[in-house]
Amino acid sequence: FEPVPGCDGGKGESGKTDYCILPPVITASPTVSSSPTPLPTISSAPTMSLAPSHQPSLHPTQSPTMGASAPLRLRLYWQSNYRWQETSKETFWCLQCRHSECKTNSIIEVDHCSSSKRQKFQYYEYDKTFRPMTDPDLCFEENGWDFETNPIQLKRCNGSSRQRWTGFKETKGIPFEFISGRNSGYCMTQAHHPKPHERVFPQQCGRARRHTTSKWVVY
Question: How far apart are CA 193 and CA 93, in angstroms?
Answer without folding.
Answer: 10
